[in-house]
Amino acid sequence: MKEQDKGIERRDFLRRMTTGVGLAVGASSLPLEALAADEPADEKRKARYQANSRDVQSFYRVNRYPAE
């Protein structure tokens, strides 16, 4: 019985270690922009897509299907 108790303790230790490492890696992979709230709320909600911009127009011009 004593050997079985040690195995369970070892498994719990390894499970806790892998959980801790997983949490540490997950927390360190967050971008700094997500942590810092620099922008005001109305700036975050602003529409950034502009259909008449030069980039959007050239994208659709280049990727247009050929005329049949």
Written description of the protein model:
This protein is mainly α and 68 residues long. The protein has one domain (2-62). The protein is built from 4 helices and no strands. The longest helix is centred in the first third of the chain and has 27 residues, at 2-28. The chain starts with a helix and ends in a 6-residue tail after the last helix. The model has no long low-confidence stretch (mean pLDDT 75).
Q: How are the elements arranged and paired?
A:
Layout: H1 2-28, H2 32-35, H3 41-44, H4 54-62
Compact overview of the structure:
The protein is mainly alpha-helical and 68 residues long. Helices cover 65% and strands 0% of the residues. It has helices spanning 2-28, 32-35, 41-44, 54-62.
Ends distance = 80 Å
Task: Sum up the overall morphology in one term.
Answer: elongated
Strand count:
0
Q: Can you tell me the residue ranges where pLDDT is under 50 for at least 5 consecutive residues? A: none
**What percent of the residues sit in helical stretches (DSSP H or I)?**
55-70%
SSE class:
mainly alpha
